Every structure is written in structure tokens, then in C-alpha cells.
Amino acid sequence: MSWMNKQEGERVVDYFIVKDRETSVAANGSEYLSLTLSNKSGSLRAKLWDVTEKQKEWLLKRAIIKVDGLITFFREQRQLNIQRVRLVTEEDEIDINELVNQAFIPREELWQELRMFIDEIDSETLREIIKTLLRKKEIREKLTTIPAAKMYHHAYYAGLLEHIVTLCHVTAQVLPVYPHLNKDVIIASCILHDIGKTKALSDPVIPDYTTSGELIGHVVLSIEMILEGAIEAGISTDHHEMVALKHCILSNYRQNYQTSGVGSKTAEAIFFQHINQLDNELNAFFMIGNEACEEWTFSPMFKRKMYTYRK
Predict the structure, then answer these.
(1) Count of CB atoms situated within 10 Å of the CB of 99
(2) What pLDDT shows up at residue 256?
(3) How far is it, in rounded angstroms, from Cα 1 to Cα 5?
(4) What separation in angstroms does the CA of 150 have from each of 38, 154, 199, 241?
């Protein structure tokens, strides 16, 4: 039985990857570790009380461990109170790929779907910019493997690719209702709006921010990469479709927690901002629901309790 189905006080013996760790001091003065563990079932927060110096030396991010612990609940979400823990050995015969939480659709299928959407772009300008960027192996590999975020939404292997393809599908389904919108600009925005995350995030399995990600941010990195792609393809950075694309991306973050300094001023930007927010929030909600066992679960992303009842 997966730990996701365990109730208060039930025992969990399973293998995990350490996604994050933080050392804290308890009220009695003893040190403990707050861990974020991950396997195919998802991410699970855990506590290791009275941690030893030796455990602190090897219980690091990216460590693959075997854990024996008891399920507890905090704010209606499961946590693990670790009783015993050790590093995985060769005798365990554990493949890291067996522990990676992945997109619901296989990466290869998502990539094929993305290629079809690219080929359906009529604009030579936008199609060539996308192809110029994705011809680069490093960008293509990162785009098709990294999560869309460290936490909250699409926070799993190939999550960014799943997010991009979902946005393209939503556009294809809804655009017939708004036939006057520029399909090519919106599809290009779906594909390239988070391209900067290929430079902002360091690892597809245990992602962390790179120096550029911390100091510049993925939005600016995305715009820089799009400009570089245009220059390499011999396209003017002031081309009207380039301007429309950049506006969709920059204005998208004006409405959310990040501010680019410009609000949505075109129909395409309004459309893109709303479908992007829709997919982000619905995916975050589904991730909460998968890990919840109560009717109401507090969400740090939404900053409120969400109704996560499941029959």
C-alpha cells in the first residue's frame, strides 16, 4: 500500500529520494531534521528527531534512503515521523528511476505532441524561433525533463513539458470560440513562456535554482533566450510577432506573484494569462488532493483551505 493511503499512526517502510532538508532545534535543545522526501507516489514531509552528527553527514539532498516511520498529520497533510533510516545499498537493488515522481503521460508521448503543435504554427517567424531554440540539445533535454516548479504545481519529472502540452491542448480546444485571436502567438507563448526555466533550474529529479535562476529569474531568462533565438535565426527582435510574443510572456506574470511591470494589453495576452493560471492552479489542486485524506486541506500556494473530499 502506498504511503498516500496510510492513516494516522500507520507504519511506512519505503524507499525515497531526499529532495530537501533543514536542520532545526527543538524546544528541549536537541537538533532535528525537517525533510522533504519523494518517490513515485509524490512528496512527503518528514521529521527525524534527535538527529546524530553522523546522520547529518550522509542524510543530504539527493540521498537515496530506506525509511521506517509512522504517519502523522499537520494541517490535514501527511507527514512521516522517522523511526529508522539508512542509505540504500547495492543489496536493495533500487533504480533511481523507480523513485522519480513523473508526469502522468510518458515524456516521449508529450514530446511527440509538442512537435505536432510546433508544426501547426503557420507563422514562419515564430516557428523558426522555436525550432532554433529546441535544436540545441541542452535546451531540449532540460525542457523535456525538468519540473515546471520546485513545488506547488507540475513539480515532478517532465512537469514543464506536461504543462506546455496541456496549454497547447487547451488553446486548440478553446480558440474556435474566439476565432479572431492570433493562434500562432498564443501557441508560441505556451511553448516558450517558461523556456528560461531550462537555465533557472538545475536538475530534473531534485531541482534547485541555479545562480542565474536566483539572480535573474526565469521570466527574464526566457526573454533573453527568445531574443538570442531570433538573432540566430536572422529575425528582427522588433518584428511585430516577436513583440506580441514577448508581451504575452511578460504580462502573464504581472497578474500573479511576480511582477514584470506591464499588464495584459492584447487579446492574446489576456487569453494566455488565464489559461496559464488555470492549468497552474488546477494542477496544484490535484496534487494537494492526491495527498490529502480530509475534506479540507490547507494549501500554501492558495493560502487557504481547499475542499479535497474524494468519494
Answers:
(1) 19
(2) 46
(3) 7
(4) 12, 8, 14, 31
Are 208 and 150 in contact by the 8 Å Cβ rule? The answer is yes
Give the pLDDT confidence of 179-232 residue by residue, as tens digits: 999 999 999 999 999 999 999 999 888 888 999 999 999 999 999 999 999 999
Walk me through the domains of the chain, giving residue ranges and CATH numbers. Answer: 3-98 (2.40.50.140), 107-289 (no CATH)
pTM of the shown model: 0.83
Q: Residue 78 to residues 70, 126, 208: CA-CA distances in angstroms? A: 10, 45, 24
Joined together, the cell numbers standing for residue 301 give 500556494
Cell of 38: 519523494
Which residue in this structure is represented by grid cell 511578460? Answer: 250
**Count of residues making up the chain:** 311
Largest Cα–Cα distance in the chain?
66
Q: How far apart, in whole angstroms, are the C-alpha atoms of residue 153 and residue 147? A: 9
Q: Which residue has the cell 519540473?
A: 147
Tens-digit pLDDT profile for residues 26-78: 888 889 999 999 888 888 899 999 999 999 889 988 899 999 999 998 877 78
Residue 36 backbone dihedrals phi, psi, to 5 degrees:
-115, 115
Residue percentage of the chain with pLDDT more than 70? 95
Q: In this structure, which amino acid lies at residue 39?
A: N
CB 44 within 8 A of CB 78: yes
Nearest to 16 by CA among 3, 1, 31: 3
Sorted by sequence, the CB contacts under 8 Å of residue 84 that are 6+ apart come out as: 67, 68, 69
- Angle between helical axes of 218-232 and 124-134 (0-180°, round to 10): 110
Q: Where are the alpha helices (DSSP H) in 77-182?
A: 107-119, 124-134, 137-143, 159-174
Angle (nearest 5°) at CA 162 between 160 and 166: 120
**CA–centroid distance for 259 within its chain:** 20
